[in-house]
Amino acid sequence: MTRPELSELDHLKELERLARAVTNAARGEDLLADDRDAENGTPLQRALHALSRGLRRYHFRGDGCLEEEEDRPDLKLAGVVILRPGAMPQGMTETYEEACARLGVEARPEGWALWNTWGDGDLHVTMVVTAVDTTEGLLMNWSRGIVRYPVTPLPSQIAVVHHGWAAHMIFSPFGVKKLGLGGQP
């Protein structure tokens, strides 16, 4: 039986899936001890610890890992919002169509991602981008405590840029730190 040809991104995801299976099996067989004991383990245990530490992120299109993304710098975000038909952020009272009209974009079935970031002089700006799947990848990483940011979007991915930030955003790790939202240590 022949195996399907994977895209570069799908290949990375498959390797990551297999590596997770290996580290989960190692953990189940007590081959993966606490991080404190990692340096005292066998060569296999040290390699498993290194593999486990390297798996802390989820790959997504726009994460900068693919060759065609290497020359695009990361974009530090304050936070993100995903707008979709029938799945608006909690607390947002307008419909998807109303939000699209307010933003000046057409209502697309796949939705829009709003990237809140900073312009010149720390000006708050919202980029309305087509990169919904990239935004989902960011959220998956952030929910696991992984600090990751997308590469700067291509001009064709940016529909419009607005002054100010979109409400109901999920703050990024950088945004939490820069805005002092982390609370007491």
Strands of the widest sheet, in order across it, are 4-3-2-1-5
Gap from first CA to last CA: 56 Å
- Unreliable parts: none
Secondary-structure element pattern, one letter each: HHEHEEHEEH
* Global geometry: elongated
Helix percentage range: 25-40%
Number of beta-strand segments = 5
* Helix and strand composition category: alpha+beta
Care to describe what's here?
The chain folds into 2 domains: 8-55, no CATH class; 72-178, no CATH class. The protein contains 5 helices and 5 strands; from the N terminus they run ααβαββαββα. Strand 2 (112-118) and strand 3 (124-129) form a beta hairpin. The mean pLDDT is 86. It is of the alpha+beta class. The chain has a 5-stranded antiparallel β-sheet, with helices on both faces.
How does the SSE layout of this entry go?
Blueprint: H1 8-28, H2 43-54, E1 79-83, H3 96-103, E2 112-118, E3 124-129, H4 132-143, E4 158-163, E5 170-171, H5 173-178
Antiparallel strand pairs: 1-2, 1-5, 2-3, 3-4
Helix pairs in contact: 1-2
Features:
alpha+beta, five-stranded antiparallel beta sheet, 5 helices, 5 strands, elongated
What's the gist of this structure?
By secondary structure, the chain is α+β, with helices and mostly antiparallel strands. The protein folds into 2 domains: 8-55, no CATH class; 72-178, no CATH class.
